[in-house]
Description:
single chain; alpha+beta; Jelly Rolls; seven-stranded mixed β-sheet; five-stranded mixed β-sheet
Amino acid sequence: MILHPVDTVDSITPDRFRxxxxxxxxxxxxxxxxxxxxxYTKWNWDYFRQVVGQQKVGLYNNVKSDAYxxxxxxxxxxxxxxxxxxxxxxxxxWRIFLFNIFDHAPQLKNDFIWPDHLMKGFVKRxxxxxxxxxxxxxxxxxxxxxxxxxxxxxxxxxxVLLFPFEEQHKLYRxxxxxxSLVDFTHYYRPDSKIDYEKYPAVKTARGFEITLEHxxxxxxxxxxxxxxEYLESGFAISLRAMQPTLGGKLKGLSNIVLMRxxxxxxxxxxxxxxxxFKEKKCFELAEGERNLV
Length: 293
């Protein structure tokens, strides 16, 4: 892989953000956005235990989904308080995915400020909380709705690997899905799980990496592939903004309504044949990318 550090600034003007990052679709970390929020000092495990501790949440383990694994199906359930107790004790490879904490504690919306000065189109009904214990992993994927993301990290460090959407075939994207066939676990360590012999095109993939710390806000442009590893137990809030163009909005809607339902139907009716077709197509597309290099 050919990786570069994500650009990092303390603050940025709206015009510079738009010209150098938003329009060119280039990731950026801004350190000072969240430091102006009450959440920066107010949000911690004890506070969440107090406001949503009794709320039952779905938990997800580190097992990478295969061709037959239902997407977004929780592996276990606990109350939020029980989950916090578990991850505070030490490494715990469990995470909470797409939890709209604000449905259960709407007062939390007063603790952050929508950064409308940077971009428009925020989906303000659905700010989402992402939580992980030390060692938990979000495997390589892109967000199906193709929205821009401002992802602010709290309470712990998290390592993030990013690739532009155009690198999809080098990452061995599963056709009609948002997931990669490749396991990028510990990609930066000697015990990396990346099988370069099986997936040689990954070697030529061009992307970015960053370690997020408390208060860092990562701008992930629409369609960016991302793999995340929690180096310490922590949580983050994602603020989503729709693409400004009609074409971008329609592509995201098509992914949700057509692509996902089509894939689900064939997984149920002819799972083995469908997986064999997608795997074959995946390797053909990756080999085509290698030949272009």
